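Thread: quick sanity check before group meeting

JM: Hey all, I'm pulling together slides for Thursday and realized we never actually wrote out the predicted structure for the chain we discussed last week. Dropping the sequence here so it's in one place. If anyone has concerns about the input, flag it before I start.
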Amino acid sequence: MPAFVLSRILQALPVMLAVALIAFTLFTFVGDPIATMLGQEFSVAQRDALVTALGLDQPVPIQFLRFIGNALHGEFGLSYRLSRPVSALFAERAPATLELAFCASVVALAVGLPAGVYTGLRPRSPLSRALLTFSLVGVSLPTFLIGSLLILVFSVWLGWLPSFGRGDTVQLGWWSTGFLTLSGLKALILPSITLGLFQLTLILRLVRSEMLEVMRSDYVKFARARGLRDRSINFGHALRNTLVPVITIVGLQLGSIIAFSIVTETVFQWPGMGLLFIQSVSSADIPVMAAYLLLISAVFVTINLVVDLLYYAVDPRLRAGRGH
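JM (edit): ok, ran it. Output follows.
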């Protein structure tokens, strides 16, 4: 197991270096940080002092090494727009995005997995047909339209749920959470459904197709011939053998939820990292954009590592192959 983990980490290093190079190129050669931070009128002395402070007077290779060193320490410079450390901005916004991503993932798994199992076991039932029709809607409609429709129905027409913001939050050290207040929980409902709906339908259809294939396999027929109960066959044999592709999709989609929560956070004005990124794009705030790119890349690399480890735990063939 340690050798397996080490090999995956070594494979991830070139990816992170490539992303760091892209982020550094964006950071260094896009826009003019001096004009952005000082405005239109500044003296030569002010410009020279800021150039020295930002390290822009050093050779490009030195700047790149300094950029990597700072990134490893969680330092990405100052935001051009807000004149605050980028790491502090992300620390403030990360709880909102992570709680939203967690809730969206729970919605997707809690509904998509059992619905996929049911439609796979009873593909011709009326409920299965209704769930498949619903999944087509979830896959086809864009996220911003789903969010707007939910706001129209539940916020404007019915007035049950808030249409924007995070509600009241409670500070637990540096972490701010909305799980401990009623308004915070109500504010989570609509954006969580909006963000998790595509993942929900994807999991549903994947689990259904895998269950249909597994239920036609020879070992399931042999298990029936042995007289095993349906519950044991469906969940002990069939469902277990659908987990490998499901783990892949769930892992990658978790990264996608965090990375592409931009649209949902914009629609609901959710104060997370995605909204911060959109605001930074509109004002060419390069340090925030570069930090977001590196952070999301690190999230995907970490999730891929976790998925590989889950493969190792779920599929005994991988462990057997390592043993030879």
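AS: nice. The mean pLDDT is 81. The first strand starts at residue 170 and ends at 172.
JM: adding both to the slides.
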